[in-house]
Amino acid sequence: DAGVIQSPRHEVTEMGQEVTLRCKPISGHDYLFWYRQTMMRGLELLIYFNNNVPIDDSGMPEDRFSAKMPNASFSTLKIQPSEPRDSAVYFCASSLTGLAWETQYFGPGTRLLVL
Amino acid sequence: QKEVEQNSGPLSVPEGAIASLNCTYSDRGSQSFFWYRQYSGKSPELIMSIYSNGDKEDGRFTAQLNKASQYVSLLIRDSQPSDSATYLCAVISGAGSYQLTFGKGTKLSVIP
Predict the structure, then answer these.
(1) Which chain A positions have a beta carbon within 8 Å of B32's beta carbon?
(2) Based on C-alpha coordinates, what's the Rg of chain B?
(3) pLDDT tens digits for range B34-57
(4) A21-71: pLDDT as tens digits
(5) Which chain A residue has its CA at the smallest distance from B90's CA?
(6) What does the DSSP assignment read for A14-67?
(7) Is the pLDDT of residue B84 over 70?
(8) Greatest extent of chain B over all pairs of C-alpha atoms, in Å
(9) In what order do the strands lie in the sheet with A19-24?
(10) Measured between CB atoms, which of B44, B88, B98 is closest to A100?
(11) β-pair type (B54-58, A42-50)
(12) pLDDT grade, residue A96 (50/70/90)?
């Protein structure tokens, strides 16, 4: 398996622009997680899905952030409008039911810089 | 606010020595505990999990949990330069929860 795939790997945008991050989980995994990592706040869970349904979005910082999972092989995290404080590395991870934490694999991340 | 605290380091140890990484957590209801390793510029990878008090060993790694003291640690025996990375402690609170709370990590440097 190719592992969790994220795109783009790097994104530079200007404040106010819309940013869309994409994730393809490992085939057969039914949990998908979006994380954000910054020096100040560390690694934070933003939202997670089970069988394409959002289960907990309490980590989403504000209404500018939204996430969707239209099918089992694709998820997006959108920021609109983007702000400089959104600059971070965004990770997507996926795992299997029943062994969710033992089988959680992270993607390579998307480095976002908002100018 | 559930918190997971780690010393940010850097922690420097000579090659072959034992590296000891520590983590405390605030939520007494925490059930599951994990250690992740993250190389610079890379994504985190799970290296150890522990669920009950005591020690759990896997190769050169030993995780130790003391729920009464709300303390979890990771020992790396015979440290190698390839162990140089940031180690993240993560905690799940409550049965059935999938909410992972991470510490900010301890940077370990193993000196050849």
Answers:
(1) 101
(2) 13
(3) 999 999 999 999 999 999 999 999
(4) 999 999 999 999 999 999 989 999 999 999 999 998 988 988 999 999 999
(5) A43
(6) -TT--EEEEEEPPTT--EEEEEEEETTTEEEEEEEEETTEEEE-TT--STTEEE
(7) yes
(8) 43
(9) A5-7, A19-24, A74-79, A65-71
(10) B98
(11) unpaired
(12) confident
User: Is-cis flag, bond preceding A8, omega within 30?
Assistant: yes
The token pair at B87 is 């180690």
> CA-CA-CA-CA torsion for A31, A34, A38, A41, nearest 10 degrees?
-70
Given a cut of 70, whether residue A100 has pLDDT beyond it is no
Task: Give chain B positions within 8 Å (CB) of A60.
Answer: none
Closest CA to B67 of B8, B27, B102: B27
What pLDDT does residue B94 have? Answer: 63
Percent of all residues in chain A with a pLDDT value above 70, rounded to a whole number: 96
Q: Which of helix, strand or coil describes residue A78?
A: strand
Q: Which two tokens stand for residue A13?
A: 């945008």
**C-alpha to C-alpha distances, A73 to A29, B60, B82, nearest whole angstrom:** 9, 36, 34
